[in-house]
Task: structure prediction
Amino acid sequence: MICIQCSLNAKYKCPTCRQPYCSVGCYKLHKENPCSAPTLVTELKNNVVHNAVEYEYPTEDTVPIEKLLLLDKSAEVKKCLENPYLREVLELLDKSSHPDALIKEYMIEPIFTEFADACLKVVQPRSDFE
Result:
C-alpha cells in the first residue's frame, strides 16, 4: 500500500474512507479535507484492481467478481432496490445464520423473485447458455 499523502509505504488506513496513510502527520493532512466511507462496490473495484479479492472456496457456480461489479450498473436491479421491503428482506438475509431457509421463504415474494431474476440477467446472461 502507498500513502495517499506522501507516496511512502503505508501501514494504516483511514477508519472512514479506508485510504492508506503512513503516519500521524499524513493522517492529519488527509483529514483536513472531509472524507466518506466507500461503497461496497468501490471497495470491490479497488480490491479487484489490486487482485486482493479471491474466493476462499470457489466452485463451478462461483460468480466472478468482475460480473458481480456489473450489478452496480443494472437499472433493473437499482429499480428493485428502491423497494424498502426488499431492502429489509436483504438485510435479514445478510444477518441470518441460515439464509438458505429464508431464501426459500422469500422466493414466493414477487419483489424478491423479480430482484433475483434481475441479478441473474446481469451475472448469467442468456448468451452464456447458448
Observations:
- The chain has a mean pLDDT of 83.
- The longest strand covers residues 12-13.
- The CA atoms of residues 80 and 115 lie 6 Å apart.
- Helices lie at 24-31, 40-49, 65-69, 75-81, 84-95, 99-106, 110-123.
